[in-house]
Amino acid sequence: MSVLSAEEHPSTQLRGFYGWTDSLKGVYYGPGSLTTALPKLRAMIGGTKALIVTGKSLYHKTDVVKKVEEALEADDAYGGTFYEIGEHSPIAGIRAGMTAFRNAGADHIVAVGGGSPVDASKAILYMLRDEDGGELKRQIAIPTTLSAAEYTVGAGYTNDEGNKVSLSDQALAPSGIILDAELTLATPERLWLSTGMRAVDHAVENLYRPLVIPPIKALCYQALRDLFTYLPQSKANPTDVSIRQKLQIASWMSLWPMKLENYSALGLSHALGHKLGAAYSIPHGITSCLTLAPTVRLKARTASQEDKEWLSGALFYLRESGTGSLDKDVAKLADLIDRLVTDLGLKSNLDQYSVPRTDVPKIAELALGGQTKDFFDVVALLEGLYTTSV
């Protein structure tokens, strides 16, 4: 009997390395955990005075930031609140945040909100270290969406030219994370559900992202099961804190902290989202609603055997039967993602965001990093995101 080599049977190539991010001390989770977890995390990092970094809507339209302020004031650790962080973290807000941090005499940041405040806080601390020297100051993240920016060592922000750029450092991962579902009740439904689709995007693209180890992919399978189960339930029962808490845990599983040498987009769906988001003012959760299902459908035709096997495996966790064909299994997963977007009321198209059709080749080229492989397939994918085909 002949035995296949690893090269002939790529699914047997199970080798790699896993390490925890150096800076992350811990994740506290549970409804009402803010008041008990924040002092513990501050003690772990030796933080004495915090600057809260958040967005205007969360600051002005909810009492979430006020609750964090009160928790810090109780320990005489409140240094101020900076809320000039816009969507996609514009560089102007980051520069102003650096000034606010210095003026407050702060030694750490407490980021409250979605991916923009968390990423902006990373950029603020990174640039402060570049300008002032010394050790990188620390961040505690309190997310109110499901975007999962708090689990990465990189940060994306929008530069002066309006382009999304990134920076990366192992020390940039927040030192502490608090998942208190009660603080998410004020998050607008469309933002909450669309960032849930962002978490779906993370879980799916981690199934074919290079260097992701099998145990992490198993977490992604469970994340997909929970996201497909609880996102529709959360839409139907928006005040159910227990469902929201399960979704926060699913978001965590979708982008479990890993030590990777380079910070980059997880895959094509994320790369397209980065190029569409800041340039055309499309929220990242919505870009995932637009690009993920078509990307998976493309993978059914172009992905490696290994990647197709991992994608096909998701059907079992979604309680869906296989088709008997890897290609058809992957296409079925794409259909399920598309149906979830529809069921959540998140369907949109590029016409709605006034993305010029003449920009399609440029967007494809930027998303592919200048590589020519799959260029025409990606152009066709983007053309399919308009109201009518080109």
Largest sheet, spatial ordering of strands: 1-8-5-4-2-3
CATH topology of the largest domain: Dehydroquinate synthase-like, alpha domain
Terminal Cα span: 53 Å
Oligomer type? single chain
| DSSP strand content | 5-15%
Organism: Vararia minispora EC-137
Protein name: Alcohol dehydrogenase IV
Describe the structure.
The chain has 2 domains: 26-186, Rossmann fold; 190-383, Dehydroquinate synthase-like - alpha domain (Dehydroquinate synthase-like, alpha domain, Up-down Bundle). Helices cover 50% and strands 11% of the residues. The strands form 2 sheets. A 6-stranded parallel β-sheet has the order 1-8-5-4-2-3, sandwiched between helices. A two-stranded antiparallel ribbon has the order 6-7. It contains 14 helices and 8 strands. The chain starts with 25 loop residues before the first strand and ends in a 7-residue tail after the last helix. Helix 10 crosses helix 14. It is of the alpha/beta class and 390 residues long. It comes from Vararia minispora EC-137.
In short:
It comes from Vararia minispora EC-137. Helix content is 50%, strand content 11%.
Give the helix/strand layout:
Elements: E1 26-29, H1 34-45, E2 50-55, H2 56-61, H3 64-73, E3 78-85, H4 91-104, E4 108-113, H5 115-132, E5 138-143, E6 154-158, E7 164-168, E8 176-179, H6 189-205, H7 214-236, H8 241-254, H9 268-280, H10 284-302, H11 305-317, H12 326-343, H13 360-367, H14 375-383
Parallel strand pairs: 1-8, 2-3, 2-4, 4-5, 5-8
Antiparallel strand pairs: 6-7
Helix pairs in contact: 4-5, 6-7, 6-8, 6-10, 7-8, 7-11, 9-10, 9-13, 10-12, 10-14, 11-12, 13-14
